[in-house]
C-alpha cells in the first residue's frame, strides 16, 4: 500500500512561463531526489473542469508517515519557494492511502 499526495495549483496568468516550466520540471524530478518518493508527476490541465486550478501534482510516497519528512525535504522546500511565486491564490491538497 502506498500514500498519495495530490496538490492543485492555481497558476497566475501573469506568472513568467519560464518559471512555470521550471516548477513543473522540478516537481517531476522529486522522485529522483527523494528516496521514498516512488512517483512524482505534474502537468497543466487539458480541460477547463479544474476551475481556477490550472496545474496538478501527484506524488506517491511509500507510507503516510513520510509526509512530514517529504514536506521538510530540501528538494521539496526549494520547489515550494518557486510555487509561491507563480500561484494566484491558495493551493489545494488532498492525501489518501492507496488501497488498490
From TrEMBL:
SUPFAM superfamilies: Dimeric alpha+beta barrel. It holds the Pfam family Dabb. Residues 3-96 form the Stress-response A/B barrel domain. It comes from the Eukaryota. Homodimer. This is Stress-response A/B barrel domain-containing protein. It comes from Coemansia reversa (strain ATCC 12441 / NRRL 1564).
Amino acid at each position: 500500500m502506498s500514500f498519495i499526495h495530490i496538490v492543485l495549483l492555481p497558476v497566475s496568468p501573469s506568472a513568467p512561463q519560464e518559471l512555470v516550466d521550471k516548477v513543473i520540471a522540478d516537481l517531476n524530478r522529486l522522485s529522483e531526489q527523494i528516496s521514498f518518493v516512488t512517483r512524482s508527476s505534474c502537468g497543466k490541465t487539458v480541460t477547463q473542469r479544474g476551475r481556477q486550478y490550472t496545474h496538478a501534482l501527484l506524488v506517491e510516497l511509500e507510507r503516510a508517515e513520510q509526509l512530514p519528512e517529504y514536506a521538510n525535504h530540501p528538494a521539496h522546500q526549494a520547489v515550494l519557494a518557486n510555487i509561491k511565486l507563480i500561484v494566484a491564490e491558495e493551493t489545494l491538497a488532498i492525501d489518501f492511502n492507496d488501497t488498490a
